[in-house]
Specification:
This protein is about 20% helix and about 40% strand. The protein is built from twelve helices and 21 strands. Strand 18 and strand 19 form a beta hairpin. The strands form three sheets. Strands 2, 3, 4, 5, 6, 7, 8, 9, 10 and 11 form a ten-stranded antiparallel beta sheet that branches. Strands 1-13-18-15-16-17-14-21 form an eight-stranded antiparallel β-barrel, surrounded by four helices. The chain has a two-stranded antiparallel sheet with strand order 12-20. The protein has two domains: about 240 residues, no CATH class; about 200 residues, no CATH class. By secondary structure, it is an alpha+beta fold. This is DUF4270 domain-containing protein. InterPro entries: DUF4270. It holds the Pfam family DUF4270.
């Protein structure tokens, strides 16, 4: 018994050294003769939720990346992605003073990765928006993945452009692709380049290049900044697939590239009469609006969410896992004690199913999970919060243990216990306090590697976790101390 007691004391001391903000009802006394350190295990229950169970609008997708494509998975069903983007115009922009013509205009989509069949034939369509979207930050519905693009363009009008493509462009050899990727910072593939003049020219209409030139000649102030450009020239583009399936592009940069001819001085004569060409790009940046629309076929997700002997994670905008903590039981047992450590882990199955084991296009594993109270999810993402290890926690996938681990949950639970001291029973029942969710997220880091932001994971990833309402319970390991005061 004495050996067990000393081991508990040593463990408690170790945990204190790791968490110097431990809170609780009691006070920790350093003298080993005045404390009792103990360990106890509780059980949490999990189940699968669809993202639309958290919010019928889907997920908040305010990121700097876009996604394009369609893919059908035997387990999760059909998933599609398309997006709206505006184009920025730098302040006080001007074309060359001696510009003669805008020769061509191309929409360039750069992607560093993709999911699915690299050779799947796809067709992309580009439509010009029929109204400017003023992203003032007040209408957050613009950034949810279920927005309706038909509110911003006329689907019955002829497209601005339509073009066939595959994720892997066979015009480039493997060696050339490797060379291109190794020679750019973001490791981009040869980009998807969409001619914005061709379709209009074939219909006998004003081309995009002629349209831009005319607008510039009408009033150069249309190009003086992003607001003027969006409201007077190009409100934005809706970019989506019209046929084909098999791949999803992860797009990191979007450029509207113009090829311009202009006159320069000929050295031999000193006259401005030599015609030269240059490319002038306009970029989609964080200063203008961009949002991805995602759609998952409902039948498969409904079926998976109904399983009770395990849970699932599926991104983007698919499935997450609800975690119900046994807080009432813990409060009755430890409500007057100091919680030094509360930890739990979630184990991942090797494969989602037999289908996934044999699927040539294996989904990735979510690398980071946010554990947060269910009632706080909406505000967390809309307000661009990051985890604080007090009310929200970040767990990273470990391939060694094949699990996601969370510690320092004592900070959250101790605060809840403190709140409970003034209440006989939560007004809305214990679900107000004990229901958390696991959500796959992407992390944003600074130059020192510190996490400074979180956003929903919008890449194609999945995991099947041990748990479920009728499955194995999730162990919560609690280390706590019982102070003894001298009389």
């Amino acid at each position: 018994m004495r050996l067990k007691f000393l081991a508990a004391i040593a463990l408690a001391a170790t945990l204190y050294s790791c968490d110097d903000t431990t809170t609780g009802i009691g006070d920790f006394v350093a003298d080993a003769d005045e404390i009792t350190a103990s360990a106890q295990t509780f059980e949490a229950t999990t189940k699968t939720l669809k993202y639309t169970d958290l919010n019928p609008d889907g997920v908040f997708s305010r990121t700097s990346n876009a996604y394009l494509g369609k893919f059908t998975d035997p387990d999760f069903g059909t998933y599609t992605a398309d997006f709206i983007t505006q184009i920025n115009c730098t302040e006080d922009f001007e074309f060359p003073e001696t510009m003669q013509d805008i020769v061509s205009t191309t929409l360039v989509l750069y992607y560093s990765s993709f999911y699915g069949d690299s050779l799947a034939p796809m067709r992309v369509r580009v439509d010009m928006l029929n109204q400017a979207i003023d992203d003032t930050g007040e209408d957050l519905s613009l950034y949810y993945t279920s927005y309706n693009p038909e509110n911003f363009y006329n689907k019955n009008e002829a497209p601005l452009a339509e073009q066939d493509y595959a994720a892997r462009n066979n015009l480039w050899t493997d060696a050339e692709v490797d060379s291109i990727k190794s020679n750019n910072v973001n490791k981009y593939y040869p980009p998807l380049m969409i001619d914005l003049d061709k379709a209009r020219k074939e219909r006998g209409e004003e081309t995009m290049s002629a349209f831009l030139k005319r607008k510039y000649q009408e009033n150069k102030n249309y190009f003086k900044d992003a607001y003027s450009f969006i409201h007077n020239v190009i409100p934005g583009f809706y970019i989506h697939n019209t046929s084909g399936e098999g791949s999803i592009l992860y797009i990191g940069d979007i450029w509207l590239q113009t090829k311009v001819s202009y006159l320069v001085e000929r050295p031999s004569t000193g006259k401005v009469d030599s015609l030269v060409y240059t490319y002038i790009p306009f970029a989609a940046t964080n200063e203008v609006y961009m949002s991805t629309r995602l759609n998952n076929s409902g039948g498969n997700l409904e079926r998976l969410a109904a399983e009770t002997h395990n849970t699932y994670l599926k991104t983007p905008a698919g499935l997450c896992t609800e975690v119900k903590l046994p807080l009432k039981e813990m409060y009755e047992a430890l409500g007057n004690d100091t919680l030094n450590s509360v930890s739990m882990s979630f184990t991942k199955y090797k494969n989602v199913s037999e289908n996934s084991a044999n699927n040539p296009y294996k989904m990735g594993t979510p690398q980071n999970l946010l554990l947060i109270r269910k009632s706080e999810v909406k505000d967390f993402f809309e307000q661009k919060k990051t985890y604080d290890s007090k009310t929200s926690f970040l767990g990273t996938y470990s391939s060694t243990t094949n699990s996601y681990s969370f510690s320092q949950l004592n900070r959250l639970i101790s605060q809840i216990f403190s709140d409970m001291r003034t209440k006989e029973e939560p007004a809305e029942g214990w679900d107000e306090y004990n229901t958390l969710v696991l959500i796959p997220v992407k992390t944003e880091t600074d130059s020192q590697g510190n996490t400074i932001g979180l956003s929903h994971d919008l890449e194609v990833n999945s995991a099947k976790l041990v748990g479920g309402e009728d499955g194995e319970k999730i162990k919560m390991e609690v280390i706590y101390t019982k102070p003894k005061f001298n009389k």
